[in-house]
Amino acid sequence: MPLRSPLYQLHRELGAVFTVFAGWEHPVDYGSVVEEHLAVRKRVGVFDLSHLGRIIISGSDAKELLEKLVPRRLAGKPGVVDGPTAFLDEKGGFIDDVLLYPLSNGEWMIVANAASREKDIAWLQQWARRLGLDVEIRDETFSMALVAVQGPESLRVLGRVGLDVATLESLKRMEFVENLDSPFGKLRVVSRSGWTGEDGFEIYADPDTSAKLFRALVEAGARPCGLGARDSLRMEVGFPLIGDELGPDVTPIEARYWLVLDMGKVASGECVGCDAVWRRLLEGVSRVRLGVKLGKGVRLVPRKGDKILVGDVEIGRVTSGAYSPILERGIGQAYIDAGHALPGLEVVVERGKKRVKAKLVDFPLIKLGGRG
Fold first, then answer.
1. Rounded to whole angstroms, how far apart are CA atoms 347 and 308?
2. For substrate, which residues are the binding ones (predicted)?
């Protein structure tokens, strides 16, 4: 039986089409992935991201545990998100990429990918025991919901539903406030963040408050958006996804996921996996992550496992793909042999007996301007 968001019934009322993702029955769209995608790029959309994990760490050694497990130095300053960063295994491979919220009460909130939540908790518990640290680890995924408002009109629509726009407008990207009053109840955390490349806010609150907020946002003009649009939006920006671009056989060096690292910390070997990542950087890699852009009008969207060819020589494989409503063509991400990892290189995408021309490109695949 798949898990369901506490907003599940509301999504049904709004006409959501559901899929099962990482064990959750969750909206994939509300009628049109393309229209939802464009709403976020041009106006404002609202997502239910309650499938993402919310893990709370408390205790006198909470920061020490996290410092040991992530390759980025933690400021630990309430009101500023530490991240994105990652949990790496001893070989430098990804267990998960995460956001860390240092809360004003001394606790830390970890926002994890849905597919990795249980692995993350086990990893945290394992290292807390190994190091003999004073921490408590609580899974609060099911006691709060997560609503994301994304797009250039995010502030405007949040103001329409009665939130304190002055407070929200004062936040810089990756800053947050706690215990914000709203007409729907207390909002536990509101951060100026997102995974779309647009300005936006991620709002953590109890399920009842979140459902009222989501409904009000839709009534105020925000377009409800599902996982389909979330995926195509992150694809245009070039964000990697655990299970597709990230996993135990990939380090941040191949992934070119520099945001999760602090090179000084990596070089000093202060975290689990840091030594392995540093060796990989010094020794070089055999493959790297790049974008793939098909020709306009080509009736194919790259899919995981598609071959990337130069002539008849395979130089890589697609890890994920989507249709880009902004570029009006299929786009994707791929791992490419280092010797051929050249943005601008003309290639062929092969699926079965079908071959189409494409080009390797760097990230982001669209011009973001002043977007986050």
1. 7
2. 202
CB 155 within 8 A of CB 162: no
Tell me the mean pLDDT in the region 131-143.
Answer: 98
In this structure, is the dihedral angle defined by the CA atoms of residues 247, 253, 259 and 263, taken in order, positive or negative? positive
HSE-up of residue 337 (Cα within 13 Å, Cβ side): 11
> What tokens appear for 256 in the block?
């070119």
Question: What is the reported pTM?
Answer: 0.96
What one-letter code names the amino acid at 371? R
* 202 is annotated as contributing to ligand binding: yes
Round to whole Å and give the CA distance between 234 and 43. Answer: 17
Spatial strand order of the sheet with 187-191 comes to: 176-180, 187-191, 200-205, 145-150, 45-48, 223-225
**Domains of the chain: residue spans and CATH:** 3-50+143-235 (3.30.1360.120), 53-139 (3.30.70.1400), 286-363 (2.40.30.110)
What are the pLDDT digits (tens) for 68-119? 999 999 999 999 999 999 999 999 999 999 999 999 999 999 999 999 999 9
The helix, strand and coil proportions of the chain, stated in percent and rounded to the nearest 5, come to 30, 35, 40
Under the banding of pLDDT at 50, 70 and 90, the label for residue 369 is low
What does the DSSP assignment read for 161-221? TT--HHHHHHPPTTBEEEEE--TTS-EEEEES--SSSS-EEEEEE-HHHHHHHHHHHHHTT
Alpha helices in 187-335 (DSSP H): 207-219, 227-237, 252-255, 263-268, 274-283
